[in-house]
Design brief:
A hairpin with a 5-residue loop joins β2 and β3. This protein folds into two domains: 3-186, 2-Layer Sandwich (Nucleotidyltransferase, domain 5), CATH 3.30.420; 201-286. The two termini are 26 Å apart. The protein is globular, with a radius of gyration of 21 Å. Helix content is 30%, strand content 31%. It is of the alpha+beta class and 289 residues long. The longest helix is centred in the C-terminal third of the chain and has 19 residues, at 188-206. The structure holds zinc ion (ZN). The site of zinc ion has 8 residues, from loops.
């Protein structure tokens, strides 16, 4: 049984010009997969490094570009997602345990697979190395990869925020702290099924969320509403303040926690200019992932 320690880099929406819109179905588009393959003795037996050509966000977000040093001309020459994921999947091999720093990368990997129609790919065994490190160091808060590298006195030889480099650091951490007798491998297939059920449960909540005027905080009647996959939009009018209200609720996941995040904003009926924003979190709807 091998361990695949992987890391992903993503491109995301950036408004380069008026009219550019984010695709609500694709928040983080994978542009790089880096991975290290370890055998049962945790020795490195292989490396995987691939730049992927984005199709939703083709031009590199300037912040991501600065962070990762990946520019548009590099991703233009990248491997199409389908080909990349197939070669990654066959490189991973049967029965391997996928390992990553936190939950976000494996969730995004699944989201990208689903977006591009790769429903059949199953990664059913998973280890969250960040979680193991938190248990190891008895840490209450989620540490960054950098801080764990520093905490374990691992030599920094390559820059962070490169998928292969981050995967290599994560593998180093894993080597130092993994204890197979007490760190249990997560049945990821089951976790995913439970996550799907949580999303379904949240979907039943989402259109019951009330619209609130960001100016006077009063509840406003819904004039119209529309639900789009994980997003819900409603529109109303505050008679007190004489304001049009646009409400957006969406199901988000962060660190394995699913929740509904709602946002009420004022807009001028025609131009939809956002005058003020109030974000309300609904903590009672959070379900531990
Ligand atoms: Zn009001």
């Amino acid at each position: 049984m091998n361990y695949i320690v992987f890391d992903l880099e993503f491109n995301m929406f950036f408004k380069f010009k008026e009219g550019d819109l984010a695709n609500p179905e694709m928040k983080n588009e994978i542009i790089q997969i880096g991975a290290v393959k370890l055998n049962e003795a945790l020795e490195t037996i292989g490396r995987f490094d691939l730049i992927i050509k984005p199709v939703v966000y083709r031009r590199m977000n300037p912040y991501v570009k600065r962070k990762t040093n990946i520019n548009t001309s590099m991703v233009v020459q990248g491997t199409p997602f389908g080909k990349a994921i197939e070669s990654f999947y066959s490189w991973v091999g049967e029965g391997s345990v996928l390992c990553s720093w936190g939950h976000d990368d494996i969730l995004a990997l699944r989201d990208n697979c689903l977006f591009f129609g790769f429903n059949a790919l199953s990664f059913d065994k998973f280890l969250n190395i960040q979680q193991i490190y938190m248990k190891y160091g008895d840490l209450p808060k989620q540490p960054s990869l950098e801080s764990a590298v520093e905490g374990l006195e691992i030599e920094v030889s390559t820059p962070f925020h490169d998928a292969l480099s981050d995967a290599s650091y994560t593998a180093e951490i894993f080597r130092k702290i993994f204890n197979p007798s007490c760190d249990t491998i997560i049945n990821w297939e089951r976790v995913q099924k439970e996550n799907d059920e949580k999303i379904e449960a949240l979907k039943n909540f989402i259109d019951k969320v009330e619209i609130q005027c960001p100016s006077c905080n009063q509840y406003v009647q819904k004039a119209s509403e529309v639900t789009k996959s994980k997003k819900y939009f409603a529109f109303g009018y505050c008679v007190e303040c004489n304001l049009h209200i646009r409400h957006v609720s969406r199901i988000t996941h962060r660190d394995g926690l699913y929740s509904i995040v709602s946002n009420n904003s004022i807009y001028k009926s025609e131009e939809a200019g956002l005058a003020a924003k109030v974000t309300q979190r609904l903590p009672n709807l959070e379900i531990e992932g």
